[in-house]
Amino acid sequence: MSVVRFQDCEVELRPDETVLSGLERAGRKIPNSCRAGICQSCLLQAVEGEPPAQSQRGLKPALALQGYFLACQCKPQGDLAVALPSSVIPSYSTKVLERECAADDVVVLRLSVPSEFAGRPGQYVHLEIDGLVRSYSVASLPERDGHIELHVRRVPGGRVSNWLHDAAEVGTECILRGPLGSCFYVPDEAREFPILLAGTSTGLAPLIGVARDALAQGHRGPLTLLHGARARAGLYFAEELRKLADTYDNFHYLQLAHEDGEAGNIEAALKQHFRKHDAGKTRVFLCGAPDLVKRMKTQVFLLGAASSNIHSDPFVMAPPAIAA
Amino acid sequence: MSTLFETLGGSAAIDAAVDIFYRKMLADDRVAHFFDDTDMDRQIAKQKAFLTMAFGGPNNYTGKDLREGHRHLVARGLNDTHVDVVIEHLGATLRELGVGEDQIAQVAAIANSVRDDVLDR
Lengths: 324, 121
Hints:
By secondary structure, chain A is an alpha/beta fold.
């Protein structure tokens, strides 16, 4: 019989019993609602062992790849160690290898890759500075590039971002926790589906991460990256993105500056985009200011993108109250 | 005997229906404003739970959940006309998926049966 470990308890499952029922029998409270594999509120993560495919049905592939499963559908073949989502965040020590001022208010930091760190471009990590924790997205392919690239926008009055801008130097050490989030590229057999990446300011970090990853994995479908900023000067990394567009025929890069009025309107650009591309087949990645991301999510959904194909990590940009 | 939920195609039917149904709701000015503050991923999960119940599938919905879950919307003016809109879009969604009228009527009857709970009366 399979044994399930959760926190400090061990349960031997009865024949035909699910992980959810077994843990409840052991007196554990696991959030749940429909108990039919639909509402996904009983989501758990396997930290050891393989959850059966049946328990991952309907999950976004990025979640399934990270061992997430639905406890109410899970009758494991072997033993499993399980945890509540995101209660397992490994912690590493890292140091600054390189820093680059990309725009007036954006510094790009490249950090050493701790051995065992398995983050994917587009996921995010927590940086811990003096007991303060902030989230930043991974823009590089850590294994290939040999560094973890983070884009840090200076938040007025923000203690962490100002410290990273003004005090962090090459060689500075800090604590990194992660990876978190499911905003990353998952290939299929043909690698021909269209990809739309849209975001503002340092929301570019996960988007360029996903683009670099997809291109490195030989993605053949069209990739379009829409980068918005208040002013043209905020559209950093333009040269690198143009170079990417020159190198790969299927990569398209569009700059949208709010100061250009209608021509720089990102929501108008999304509408325009789906006149030419099949929304139903497109995988969409969105990042930036939370309000804008929420509006863009609704907009691309109404334009025909499938809800399961819309990816955005709500914590990628901390709201001002937390970012301060 | 198989349940209505199974006849409709089980959880695969929910997956097929949820985007169509929620898109109709968001595109309809009569009800779209009730979703202004909500996160889409969480909404999709809630809509799936609702559709499962309406299709007669397994669920743990209680009258109390439905009352508490909609009380803030009732305060914002949720009333019978909005429940009618939900049932209208539910029917149109199922019609798009090729479901027969007698089954649509069964689904509408289940949705109708929780009307008083949703409207907190």
